[in-house]
Amino acid sequence: MKTLLFNFVKDEQGQDLIEYTLLLAFVCLASAALFISAGGSVAGIWTATNSRLAAANTSAS
User: Fold this and answer.
1) Distance between CA 47 and CA 11 in Å, rounded?
2) What residues of the chain score a pLDDT lower than 70?
3) Distance, CA of 52 to CA of 30 (rounded, Å)
4) What angle do CA 33, 26, 21 make, to 5 degrees?
5) What pLDDT, on a 0 to 100 scale, did the predictor assign at position 24?
6) d(CA 26, CA 30)
7) Which pLDDT tens digit goes with each residue over 19-30?
């Protein structure tokens, strides 16, 4: 039993999979935060563009 426990603690198989999974989770969270924060900026750009186009349409008519 002691040998089995010792082998389980010393076994490093699967460690890379866990590390890559944690790295992938971090990248996903960081990109989601980036897209959420960029969404407000894009909405502001579209609102400003829409108001300028509406003003140009009114003055052209």
Assistant:
1) 57
2) none
3) 34
4) 145
5) 96
6) 6
7) 899 999 999 999
Distance CA 24, CA 30 (A): 10
Rounded CA gap, 18 and 20, in Å?
5
In one-letter notation, the amino acid at residue 8 is F
Block residue for tokens 């909405």: 43
The DSSP result for the chain, as a single string, is: -HHHHHHHHH--TTHHHHHHHHHHHHHHHHHHHHHHHHHHHHHHHHHHHHHHHHHHHHHH-
What letter represents residue 23's amino acid? L
